[in-house]
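stage 2 :: seqdesign
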C-alpha cells in the first residue's frame, strides 16, 4: 500500500541523515474546493462518500468513476486523497511564495487520475492541482519536472 512506501521513504531519509538538509512540512489536507479545481464535483463528492460498506449501494457510481480492481475502495480513501493532493498543492504554494526552490511530495505524482475517473491507483491528480496552483503566480511554467 502506498502509505507504507511513504513511511519507508521517510525512514530511509532519516537513517541516511538527509532530513537535516531539508525543511519537512506536514501537508494541510486539500479541501473539496481545491480538488474541484480540476476534478468534477460529482466525482469528488463520490470519493468523499464511498466506503467499503457502501460499495454495493453505490455500484453504478463505482463503475462510472472506474473505482474497483485497479483503484480499490478502502477505509480512509478520501482522507488519503486529501493528504497527498494537499502535499502537492502545499509544495506549489511554498514555491509560489519563494519560501524554497525545490519542493518534493514523496506521496505525490499520482497523475493517472482523470477529471471524472480513477486510474492506476490514482484517485486525484495532484500533479494537475499543483500546476494550477503554480499558474496563480507564473504565466508559464518555464522548467518544471513533476513526477
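stage 2 :: out
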Amino acid at each position: 500500500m502506498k502509505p507504507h512506501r511513504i513511511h519507508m521513504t521517510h525512514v530511509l531519509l532519516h537513517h541516511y541523515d538527509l532530513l537535516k538538509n531539508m525543511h519537512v512540512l506536514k501537508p494541510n489536507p486539500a479541501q473539496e474546493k481545491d480538488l474541484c479545481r480540476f476534478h468534477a464535483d460529482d466525482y469528488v463528492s463520490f470519493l468523499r462518500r464511498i466506503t467499503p460498506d457502501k460499495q454495493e449501494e453505490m455500484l453504478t457510481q463505482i463503475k462510472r468513476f472506474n473505482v474497483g480492481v485497479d483503484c480499490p475502495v478502502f477505509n480512509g480513501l478520501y482522507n488519503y486523497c486529501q493528504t497527498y493532493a494537499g502535499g502537492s498543492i502545499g509544495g506549489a504554494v511554498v514555491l509560489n511564495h519563494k519560501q524554497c526552490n525545490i519542493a518534493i511530495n514523496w506521496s505525490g505524482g499520482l497523475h493517472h487520475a482523470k477529471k471524472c475517473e480513477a486510474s492506476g491507483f490514482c484517485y486525484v491528480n495532484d500533479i494537475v492541482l499543483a500546476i494550477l496552483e503554480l499558474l496563480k503566480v507564473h504565466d508559464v511554467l518555464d522548467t518544471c519536472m513533476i513526477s
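stage 3 :: structure notes
- The mean pLDDT is 92.
- The chain has six helices and no strands.
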